[in-house]
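Reviewers of the previous submission asked for a worked example of the structure-prediction workflow described in the proposal, so we include one complete record here. The input consisted solely of the amino acid sequence. No template or homolog information was supplied to the procedure at any stage.
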Amino acid sequence: MIIQASGASSTERGEVIQSLWSGYGEIVRYSLSGADVPSVVIKHVKFPSAVNHPRGWHNDHAHQRKVKSYEVEMHWYHDWAKRCDDACRIPHSYASQAHGDEHIMILEDLDAAGFPARQNQLDLHGIQLCLSWLASFHATFLGDNPSGLWPVGSYWHLATRPDELAVMDDDALRDAAPIIDSMLSNCHYKTIIHGDAKLANFCFSTDGERVAAVDFQYVGGGCGMKDVAYFLSSCLSDRDHEQYEEVLLSHYFDTLKVAIIQHGHSVDVDLLEHEWRSLFPVAQADFYRFLVGWMPTHWKINDYNKRIAMEVLKSL
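From that input alone, the workflow returned the following structure tokens.
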């Protein structure tokens, strides 16, 4: 598959970049000879006979969600990914195939393409760079029907997380979860969201001035604020979140408005901003709801996002 897709004369298996969540396969770099690029990255999914989830969440429902996520990712690269330009850079897809319980995706090696750096933390400029990526991505797919993708994007979407909801200790939050979910899913202005836009899924150029994103298992329809709220939770402390939230949201919306105009969408950008800004705390509360059920001791649970969630509950 690699030789046929890349035009290489030969290929050699290299390093394992990472194992996939719960033992569902691996991501491996392959070197190429006689091709236009020196290497490709293979995402090789093989569904395990026994699942060992690191948090203990292993059942048939969770397994089917993961199976669906890899099918969605293959649809993404086959049908949608080519529409992403340099403003929302992603790896080029050379080929993808499914063989029984295996899914194989042959992707551009972003390290070789000029994005070799990974970051554990970001300064404000780096955060704004990623928010610009998200704004460009959301503008690109504004108003599109997510055919072949998740109808509602994000890995914590309520309908896919009944087990986590059932064990939640917070009765008020559990009862409000469907309302919060409905507010986000039924917003007027919809786009395609990345669905897992955490810092670990962004790749950076050596000079830190360009960014690309990977991992499209939970890409689907919805409000862009879900990506923004989730991304900021992955790279800001509760104190920094409070201090810089307005500056960062303004940067996102400034970039989004320019990108919407560039893509020729005939929407009222001010109305869109008004709606999405009002839904930003709702998106924060939605992700907080997932964390409380999934892992109540998670480091992302803090006084700030708990306060935001409680304020949203009071407003309902």
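The longest helix spans residues 269-294. We consider this example representative of the routine output the project will generate in years two and three.
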